[in-house]
Amino acid sequence: MDSWIAIIRLDLALFLRDRKALVLLYLVPVLMAAFFGQLTGGTGGKAERSAIGLVLVDLDGSAASRGVVAAFTNDSTFAVVVTNEAAARDRVTAGRVPVGLVFPPGFSTNLLQGIFQSDRRPVVTLLFDPSHETERSLLEGMLVPKVVSGVADGLLNVDVGRDLIARGRTNILRAQRLPEIQRRLLLDSLAQADAFLESRRTSVARTNAVAGPAELPLPYRVDAQPLTRVAGARYNGFAHSFAGMSLQFVLMVMIDLAVGLLTERQSGTFRRLRAAPLSRATLLLGKATSYAIIALSTFVVSFAVAMSAFGVRIHGSWIGFVAVILALCYFSATLALALAAIGRTPKATRGLAIPVVLILLMLGGAWIPSFIFPSWVRTVSLWMPTGWGIEALDAMTWRGLDVSAVFLPVAGLVAVGTLLGGIAWRRFRWDGGPGS
Amino acid sequence: MNTEGSAPVVLAARNLVRRFGDRVAVDGISFEVRAGESVGLLGPNGAGKTTTFSMVTGLLRPDSGELLLGGAALVSDTDPIKRRLGLVPQDLALYEELDARRNLGFFAAIQGVGRSRIPEAVRSALEFVGLSDRADDRVGTFSGGMKRRLNLAAALLHDPDILLLDEPTVGVDPQSRNAIFDNIAELRRRGKTLLYTTHYMEEVERLCDRVIIIDRGRIVADDSLARLRHRAGAGAGAELRIELEEPAPETLTGILRDIPGIGSVRIDGRSVQVRVGSLAAGSSQVLGRLAEAGIGVRSFSAEPPNLEAVFLELTGRSLRDS
Q1: Per CATH, the architecture of B9-224 is what?
Q2: Which residues of A touch B112 (CB under 8 A)?
Q3: A431–B85 CB contact, under 8 Å
Q4: Which residues of B touch A (CB under 8 A)?
Q5: In sequence order, what are the beta bridge partners of B219?
Q6: A287 CA: distance to closest CA in chain B (Å)
Q7: What are phi and psi of A88, to 5 degrees?
Q8: Distance between first and last Cα of chain A
Q9: CATH architecture for the domain at B237-304
Q10: Burial of A244 (0-12, 13-18, 19+ CB in 10 A)
Q11: Which has the closest alpha carbon to B49: B152, B165, B150, B160?
Q12: Chain A nearest-CA residue for B215
């Protein structure tokens, strides 16, 4: 019994002496849980939801179309930008906004006629980023109430519609200057409409009795257009997942390499290296290069499999694609060096590196689509180099954007990588401190 | 090989000072090592020995003073003059996941051995330490002694003039230790200059012809082994071993301890061991008191002072226990 207690006490004493382990055990899970809880709704009513980016193009310019635009603008679910069609297509194609709507000329006129004549229904173009199917479905669903509230709330209601028709018939009969032939045509049209609405009432009543309430047919059609830059380029979910997962495992390997660097220093091999005509810069450069090669090999293998087995294609620029991969390798390698330099000991480095990498991956969108993030998290995630890299890989694969689309992300990754390299250069010590 | 006074100075430390915060680890150490000399660097833990050694090997920069290799100051990490040094670190500075050949190949490249000459340098080093037949085995599968030998081989790849050996036999079995001694002895025969740190006095006595003793950051002795022994004979005392004709009486301990300058006294039946401050004076006093007490002596011998005694005399501390 004494031995048993002694073992327990020893282990607890050792554990409590390891402050980094304490941080890892107690603080990191709390932070991660808080973060994920925030993503998935927090405490309920007060949780902040992020708005979905939406570009609207109003080619009709009627009061009705403006009403629909206003209905979307007033809905906090969406962050609306009203623009022209070319700009809207550019924004969606580049992935800056997930969805857009184009209301065509004659939208409101055709909308009314489309209630009774399906071939007259206006076509609303729904532009969407193919990687954002969820937002597309949501928008398509929300379009109905917006149109109803913005334009045709009354006409889509059978009773109100028949009342409007009755009042219209009265006005037509009272119009003394109206040519008889026109009067008859209008009255015939209203009669047909009234008959249609009556038939709908009967149909609705029958359907409701069997299967619950039904709706009138939509007075418009939706032409959903997935947008990519290159004709024939199609969204491939594997392109995004291979980018995210490759980067994830590259960063995981970088944790091991950072810890390994310090273990190597502890093993004494650095003493031998220091006795050789070798500079610290050469050592760090050599390490960074080998880490970058390891990262590169991961990307190469992953995308080779993605291309050969999962149909991933580089629809954008090959130069851009290679530039992004190399920039990510550079960033990952210098991150490993910086983590080792800041952590200083293998245990401390592991304790530091795990949360850093997890945050980079989560906020970079490697795991969870960024649109479900609260807006403040989305703001923070804009600063994540991992997010820049993944977005840039998307741009070069299924989005099919040209090389200019990666200029900024690559420059950002190189800048952050250089900053991390500078930290490593300033802080990394290749000796173990004083001896006897 | 003792080349004192005749060979050129290949390594010179001039007034080296190194502080860690407020603590002065090395306080003005100066010494020279001549070509072909084998010098032992001794000191208790915390004496400044490792700091001195680290400065000599370029691992630490002195706060003041200078270090000259072949008359030239070491000015930077990449100074080619460092190729004159070969370091055998106390830690097993090897990559256990790699085989012996890959390990040595890497260290040869780091030392600037030309790519075309690396295979031969590796082959030669492996042969020297007797590990040719294990060249392609992973180092992790080696015994402790084999790793120590490979650790030595890694310092020889670029054929350095000066070998810096930091406790190269720590934790090895007697057989491997002897193998390493043989290797080092062979290096001495080849004219290599050796600077050797160890806690084992017998290693210094066997391998070195000059000893530098450091204590509290300063050199307290720097001389040949012979001179140090001579000095110890005068000051560090000796151990007398006496065999009595009859079992020792209970009063003998008190009788011997009354002698001025007497050290430890151990009595076991007829066997008596006495440490005295001076061999000549001490032995006559002890034998005189025994005669006065009527205690017959069957045999008498005196052990000459060893390096341990010298160390104790100079530092007041035992080397391994300090």
Answers
A1: 3-Layer(aba) Sandwich (3.40)
A2: 276-277
A3: no
A4: 20, 25, 43, 45-51, 53-54, 57-60, 76-83, 85-87, 89-95, 107, 110-112, 154-155, 164
A5: B214
A6: 14
A7: -65, -45
A8: 42
A9: 2-Layer Sandwich (3.30)
A10: buried
A11: B165
A12: A436
**In terms of Cα–Cα distance, which of B127, B16, B32, B115 is closest to B64?**
B16
* Half-sphere exposure (Cβ direction) of B245: Cα atoms closer than 13 Å: 7
Contacts of B82 in chain A (CB under 8 A): 275-277
Residue extent(s) of CATH 3.30.70.100 domains in chain B: 237-304
Tokens 């209008």 found at = A186
Contact residues, chain B, for A280 at CB < 8 Å: 77
CA pair distance A150, B21, nearest whole angstrom: 76
CB contact under 8 A, A272 and B155: yes
Domain layout of chain A by residue ranges:
52-226, 237-427
Q: What's the pLDDT tens digit per position in A33-48?
A: 777 676 666 665 555 5
CATH 3.40.50.300 maps onto chain B at: 9-224
Nearest to A272 among B46, B54, B87 (CB): B87
Nearest beta carbon to residue A431 from set B60, B107, B164: B60
Q: Does domain A52-226 have CATH number 3.40.1710?
A: yes
Q: How confident is the model at residue A233 (pLDDT cuts 50, 70, 90)?
A: low
> How high is the pLDDT of residue A434?
38
Chain A residue closest in CA terms to B56 = A275
**A108-153: per-residue pLDDT in tens?**
778 777 766 677 788 999 999 887 877 888 888 888 877 876 665 4
A206: Cα separation from own chain's centroid = 44
Mean pLDDT, 10 residues at a time, chain B of 322 residues: 69 93 91 94 83 86 90 84 90 90 93 93 96 95 92 94 90 85 91 88 84 89 80 64 88 86 83 80 84 88 70 63 46
ipTM of the complex: 0.74
**Paired tokens of B142:** 């080696």
Whole-number Å distance between alpha carbons of B273 and B243: 9
